[in-house]
Specification:
The complex is a heterodimer of chains A (124) and B (201). Helix content of chain A is 42%, strand content 30%. Chain A is α+β, with helices and mostly antiparallel strands. Chain A has one helix and four strands, in the order H-E-E-E-E. Chain A has one domain: 2-Layer Sandwich (Pantoate--beta-alanine Ligase, Chain: A,domain 2), CATH 3.30.1300. The longest helix of chain B has 53 residues. In chain B, strands 1-2-3-4-5 form a five-stranded antiparallel beta sheet, with helices on one face. A four-stranded antiparallel beta sheet of chain B has the order 7-6-8-9, with helices on one face. Chain B is an alpha+beta fold. In chain B, strand 4 and strand 5 form a beta hairpin. In chain B, 33% of the residues lie in helices and 31% in strands. Classes of the chains: A alpha+beta (124), B alpha+beta (201). Chains A and B meet through helix 1 of A and helix 1 and strand 9 of B.
């Protein structure tokens, strides 16, 4: 019966170590995935913001009839519209127009970047 | 007394199963790590043009509205301008020229040239904005004398164009988001808050 006192791992120890290993590997997977997703989201937001800055510059100068919308390649969709803004705290009330540009990825219903620019309303 | 040293058949089976699962996990982890590396490199490559767009936008928007100070020239394959070098230019350059242009392979590059007081080149740096673009085009929005404003292919007027636009398609055929910049926008926006003299024409 000297075999039962031999040094070595028992099955139980093996199973415990396996559980610990799988917990560790899973958490590494998760952190890597989260990191990559964050990098992707941030990059997309950068790019969408850049697109919005270009669009606002063009709309402010060329003054097309709003609302307008368009697509860029197979990745982006954008919408530009005008929203009236009244500053009632001033007397008399001053009316502004807010040019608002939303940039969407073709996959997402929510805008990834939104940029607005205020200008005095026409005829005031 | 049939208890012998060693694992029973069942134990052996369990150990083999655990080993198989561990091997799959580690194999999967290697594969995942390789994919993660590829994606990280791809993201970095996508980030460079975004950073360069921001850099270029900053320079163009902060350009002087005075023609003799900005030396702006826009052609079909690029535009160039200059500004006074500040303390941040190293080594200290009196003036800095920026050339945003296409090379022979249709790659768009930003060239930064620093000159000292006597006009000698003391600094030259080239950054690739985008490699091998398809059908790239530059256009300039503004009014030439006695015309209404529209997009032009060439701009050599004494005044700045009101917009600069760069459009192209990526090598895979998908459209690159157009880059539209308003020259001297910083100056024009400052007019709203502080009454500067009107820009010379």
């Amino acid at each position: 019966m000297k075999s039962s006192t031999k040094s070595g791992f028992t099955l139980l120890e093996m199973m415990i170590s396996f559980v610990i290993l799988s917990i560790a590997v899973t958490s590494i997977y998760q952190s890597l995935t989260t990191g990559l997703t964050t990098a992707h989201t941030r990059l997309q937001r950068y790019e969408a913001t850049e697109i919005a800055i270009s669009l606002v510059a063009e709309i402010v100068v060329t003054q097309p009839q709003l609302p307008v919308s368009g697509e860029i390649g197979t990745t982006w969709r954008w919408e530009a519209r005008i929203e009236p803004v009244a500053v009632e705290m001033l007397s008399p009330t001053i009316f502004f127009q807010q040019i608002k540009v939303d940039v969407y990825s073709l996959k997402s219903p929510e805008p990834i970047a939104t940029l607005s620019r205020i200008r005095p309303a026409e005829g005031t | 007394m049939n208890r012998k040293a060693g694992l029973s058949y069942l134990e052996l089976l369990i150990v083999l199963m655990l080993l198989a699962i561990t091997a799959t996990l580690i194999g999967g982890a290697f594969d995942f790590a390789r994919q993660a590396k590829t994606r990280a490199i791809a993201y970095e490559a996508q980030e460079t043009p975004i950073i360069l767009r921001g850099l270029l936008r900053g320079w163009v928007e902060n350009m002087s509205p005075v023609a003799s100070e900005n030396g702006f020239r826009g052609s079909v394959d690029g535009f160039s301008f200059s500004f006074a070098g500040g303390l941040r230019a190293k080594p200290l350059a009196k003036s800095i020229e920026i050339h945003f242009a296409l090379n022979e392979t249709n790659a768009a590059a930003i060239e930064i040239i620093g000159n000292n007081e006597s006009g000698t080149e003391i600094l030259r740096d080239t950054r690739i904005f985008a490699p091998a673009l398809l059908s790239p085009s530059f256009s300039y929005y503004g009014a030439k004398p006695s015309q209404s404003p529209r997009w032009h292919e060439v701009w050599v007027e004494p005044r700045l164009p009101r917009l600069i636009r760069f459009q192209a398609a990526r090598p895979n055929g998908s459209a690159m988001p157009p880059l539209v910049i308003r020259p001297a926008a910083a100056y024009h926006q400052s007019l709203i808050s502080a009454p500067f003299p009107s820009p010379p024409t």
